[in-house]
Amino acid sequence: MSAAPLWTIAEVARALSLPGTFPETSIDFVTQDSRLVKPGSLFVALSGTPSGGFVSSFASARDGWQFAANAEAAGAVAMIVPHRIEGVSVSQLVVKDTLLDGLWALARAGRARFKGPVIGLTGSAGKTSTKEFIAAYPQSYASPSSFNNFWGVPLTLCNANPEASVWVVEMGMNQAGEISRLSDLTKPTVATVVNVQPVHLEKLGGLEAIRHEKVSIARGLPKDGILVLAAGIDAPEWNGKIIRFGQASEVRELKHISTGESWQVEADVCGRQITFTLTPGAPHRLQNALAALASVHAAGLDEVALARKLGNVGVMSGRGVEQSAGGAILIDDSFNGNPASMVAALDSLKARPMSNGRRIAILGDMLELGLESPAYHQALAKHLSGIDGVYCVGPLMRHLYELLPDGKGLGWHEDPATLQPVEIAALLRGGDVVVVKGSKKMFWVNKFVPRLVAALQAKA
Length: 460
Hints:
CATH architecture of the largest domain: 3-Layer(aba) Sandwich
CATH class of the largest domain: Alpha Beta
Number of strands: 21
Number of helices: 16
CATH superfamily of the largest domain: Mur-like, catalytic domain
CATH topology of the largest domain: UDP-N-acetylmuramoyl-L-alanine:D-glutamate ligase
Mean pLDDT: 92
Radius of gyration: 23 Å
Shape: globular
Helix content: 25-40%
Number of domains: 3
Distance between the termini: 56 Å
C-alpha cells in the first residue's frame, strides 16, 4: 500500500478557506523557491518584499508569481498566487497575501492535524546543532537546514511528516517579537532555549532584551507545556514547568573521558544516569547534547533512545567541518560568529590533542554587536591561552589584533573581500590545526574556506 500524500490540492484549498471545487491531486512537497520545485510540488509564490511586518536580508525586486511558469515546468501541480496568472494550466489557489493567507494558513492546518509532541527551540548560538541532535531521535521530523524564520518555520510545518514520532522546529529572529509569533504558529508542547548570548545587540539593545526575546518562545506553549532552559537563564514570564540543563541542573554532565576526537560522556537526565558518545567531542557540543536530552525527556520520549544515536551526529557545513589540505587540518566554522560561539570554537581548538604542529585561529569580525563591539572583540584576548597563532580579519578584529603578544599575531587584514587565501596558506605548516571563525559575511558568503583549501593543496 502506498503512503498517503502529504496534502491534496483540495485539502490545501480547504486550509486556505477557498470556495469552489478542487482536485484530489497529491502534493508531496511545499516550497517557495521555484528552483527547488520537483514533480508533485506545491509552489508558494511569496512577495519579494516580506509582508506581515517581517524583515529579510534576502528581499528581492521580483515576486514569486513571476516564476510561476518555471515552477510549472519543473513539475508543480498547484501554486498559491496573489492573482490568476495567464498561461499557467495547473491549479491556482488565489489568496490576498501569499505569506500570511497562504503559507501560514497551510502551516496552521499542518500543525493542527499532528497530535504528537512538538519541540520548538531557539538560542543565541548552537540552536541548529541542538536541533540536529534532537533530530537523531527515531522517526523524528526536523526543520531542514536553518529554516528558522518567517518563511522557514511555516515551510517546516507544511512539509512535516504527520506520522513522525516528534517534530523539531527551530526558530530564529531578525527583530523583536518574531520568536513569539513563530511560537504561536508552531504551538510547541516543549520550548527549549539553548542559551542567551550577546547577539543582535544593534537591534535589541542589550542582553536583557535578548533574554526576553528568546524566552518568548514560551508564548506558544499550552498551560501544561514545558520550558527547557540552560542553567542561569531566568524566565519570569512563564508560570509553568521548567527543566534545566547544564551545571548543577536536572540534566547535567557527570563526567567525560576523551578518546581521540571522541568523548565518552556520563550524564544525569532527571535522575536517570545514561552514557553516550560524541564525535567530535567539544564543550559546546556537550552542552547542545544535554539540551537535546532535556528536550526529549520533557516531550515524554525515551532519552536513552536518543543517547544511542548522539555519537552518529556529526557537524554541519560551516559549523566545524574538518578536512585535510596541504598537511594541515582545516576546521570550517565560518557559518556564523558571536562572542559565545567564538569562545566555544577557541575552547574546542585548545582541547584538541596535538602531536605536532600549531593551533591556529583565523578570526573575522563579529557583527551586529552595537556600541560594545570593540569591547567584545578585545575580550577574546583572554581566551587565547593555548592558541599558538591568530590571524585577524575585519576592522573590528583590529581591536583584538592590537592586544596580541609578540609571536602570536600572524597578521591583520581589514577587508575580507580582498583577503587572498594564498596569503594565509603561506603562513601555515604541515601538522597545523586551523579554525576559521567569524560572522557569516566575513568568510562564508565569499567561500573563503574552499578557496583556502585549494591554495593549501596547490602549495603542497
